[in-house]
Hints:
Rossmann fold; Methyltransferase domain protein; 20% strand; SAM-dependent_MTases_sf; transferase; 247 residues; globular; alpha/beta; S-adenosylmethionine-dependent methyltransferase activity; Methyltransf_11
Amino acid sequence: xxxxxxxxxxxxxxxxxxxxxxxxxxxxxxxxxxxxxxxxxxxxxxxxxxxxxxxxxxxxxxxxxxxxxxxxxxxxxxxxxxxxxxxxxxxxxxxxxxxxxxxxxxxxxxxxxxxxxxxxxxxxxxxxxxxxxxxxxxxxxxxxxxxxxxxxxxxxxxxxxxxxxxxxxxxxxxxxxxxxxxxxxxxxxxxxxxxxxxxxxxxxxxxxxxxxxxxxxxxxxxxxxxxxxxxxxxxxxxxxxxxxxxx
Length: 247
């Protein structure tokens, strides 16, 4: 498909009622997370409609996309499966809705692990298939010819995502759910169900947000077991020079 058409399709959805709702919720999550992450280089992959590194204090911040579109506000175009970065060169990497639209999400995670420094942070937001958003995607696939963004993605469950991250050597720092209101296209319906954001986020969130850290593999220091080897209570006196019988 034409890259310009893909970008325009994505742009139209992000400008819709559901898209604007998602943008506001996710922007708040990323803003709160990146402000406390430090380093020299940070990269946001995809979702050009949101500047998710705007609240970061890292000096070198980049945005990439997988296809080139004229007049598009990004720094580079590259495949998320083969990033043009050296090993351990990024301190923070953002994957907003990249894995569910990646042809090889495992390879995307492997690249993320490769380019991140030790103790570097990986931030992921993805659509939750066990939510009203996941139901909407399923209904679109079954009963509609609507194969447009975001319903044409392969939504990945939160538990599976956690397993993948653990397999790649990442430690889960935090997980949050957001976008509990179903993806309505009418503002009145979205406002009517806004109460769900307060009471249903933990169960019915349409989007999960993960902050993970790249673990450092190596030797694990062993702590002495003082209880199993207590100090001797009876000291043995050392002989003095006077006690030595010189012959």
